[in-house]
Specification:
about 140 residues, mainly beta, 2 helices, five-stranded antiparallel β-sheet
Length: about 140
């Protein structure tokens, strides 16, 4: 049904936009922005908002992107001109642990840090800094 003013609302579209629009973690560096949405998708764009696109994440089998509540409590994503680094969660329950992935904007894995429960990640140019504790 179209209201008298000619605007037709589509609730399904609003629901989809709301699901996809919530950002759980973000970083901006070197003129590039990266963010993770609540539906576990990673996006990059120029810092002015142009060129936004989804980036495939090379997750390990059995691992998922760190959940929204945990991601919002830590420095869980970092970006530089050509690299995105973030944490994945592997295992379940009391045996869950975080690992670090660094990959280029085409989704090609560059670094995978295992054995360290990652709590913070930072990129500066070609340098990657990781904070965490022994995850084993």
């Amino acid at each position: 049904m179209v209201p008298r003013d000619g605007i037709q609302l589509k609730p399904q579209r609003f629901e989809r936009i709301a699901r996809e629009s919530f950002v759980t973690a973000a970083d901006v560096s070197d003129g590039v922005a990266a963010w993770v949405t609540t539906d576990a998708r990673v996006h990059v764009a120029n810092a002015d908002g142009s060129g936004a696109r989804e980036v495939p994440v090379p997750l390990d089998p059995g691992c998922v992107l760190t959940s929204a509540p945990l991601m919002s409590q830590t420095q869980a994503i970092a970006v530089s001109r050509d690299v995105v680094a973030l944490t994945e969660t592997c295992g379940t329950g009391a045996h869950a642990f975080f690992e670090l992935l660094a990959f280029d904007t085409s989704g090609r894995l560059l670094v995978h840090v295992k054995g360290l429960s990652v709590t913070a990640v930072s990129l500066s140019g070609p340098s990657l800094a990781v904070g965490g504790v022994d995850g084993q």
